[in-house]
Amino acid sequence: EVQLQASGGGLAQAGGSLRLSCVTSGFTFADYAIGWFRQVSGKEREGVSSIFDHERTTYYADSVKGRFTISSDNAKNTVYLQMNSLKPEDTAVYYCAVDISRLGNEYIEHWDYRGKGTLVTVSS
Question: Each residue of 84-106: pLDDT tens digit?
Answer without folding.
Answer: 999 999 999 999 999 999 999 99
